[in-house]
Specification:
Blueprint: H1 14-21, H2 25-33, E1 40-41, E2 47-48, H3 51-65, H4 70-79
Antiparallel strand pairs: 1-2
Amino acid sequence: MVAGDNPETSIYSIGVTKKRVGLTARRIRYYEKAGLIEPERTKGNQRLYSQNDIERLKKIKGLLEQGLNLAGVKRKLNSE
């Protein structure tokens, strides 16, 4: 199995992630600070995102576009 085949493997930098999700790096870091996402970190403290993280960010973006606030998004994600 190639590392990229496992959706839980953290291989994407924040630069790649922001392009795949359509969010700014600042917005992604904000969602991390709010506790909505927890990327892995390298020994050098670089964030690494998995395909599952990318899907979660897309879901967060969609829920916010539907009008939920961050607290509502957090409740929705935690209930799933």
